[in-house]
């Protein structure tokens, strides 16, 4: 299992628009990303979110990273900086 983390800095006044974009534009596209198991967004501060995407393996995560950057591109007017991505292999899981 592999996880990719994307830090998203956004305009706090655009929060509702971001959530609407996630529901109406992002969610329908997720099924077409091979190996993607789950995506969650976590609020870090008023203007920062961390998006956590879980994949079955690193290869699919790399392919998914390209698609996700295109999806984030559709949010450009709501962001205050380019998204930052990093990731790694899951080495411990409380559910296993």
Named CATH architecture: 2-Layer Sandwich
- Overall geometry comes to globular
Distance between the termini: 12 Å
Work out the helix count: 2
Major β-sheet strand ordering: 2-3-1-4
Question: What is the secondary structure topology, with strand pairs?
Answer:
Layout: E1 2-9, H1 15-30, E2 36-45, E3 48-55, H2 58-73, E4 84-89
Antiparallel strand pairs: 1-3, 1-4, 2-3
Written description of the protein model:
The protein has 96 residues and is of the alpha+beta class. Helices cover 33% and strands 33% of the residues. The protein has one domain (2-84): Alpha-Beta Plaits. The chain is built from two helices and four strands, in the order E-H-E-E-H-E. Strands 2-3-1-4 form a four-stranded antiparallel sheet. A hairpin with a 2-residue loop joins strand 2 and strand 3 (48-55).
Characteristic terms for this protein:
96 residues; 2 helices; Alpha-Beta Plaits
Compact description:
With 96 residues, the protein is α+β, with helices and mostly antiparallel strands.
């Amino acid at each position: 299992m592999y996880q990719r983390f994307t830090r998203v800095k956004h305009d706090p006044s655009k929060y509702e628009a971001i959530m609407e974009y996630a529901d109406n534009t992002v969610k329908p596209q997720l099924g077409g990303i091979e190996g993607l198991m789950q995506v969650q967004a976590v609020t870090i501060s008023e203007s920062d979110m961390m998006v956590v995407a879980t994949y079955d393996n690193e290869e699919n995560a790399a392919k998914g990273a390209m698609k996700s950057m295109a999806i984030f591109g559709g949010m450009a007017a709501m962001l205050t900086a380019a998204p930052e991505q990093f990731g790694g292999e899951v080495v411990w899981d409380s559910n296993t």
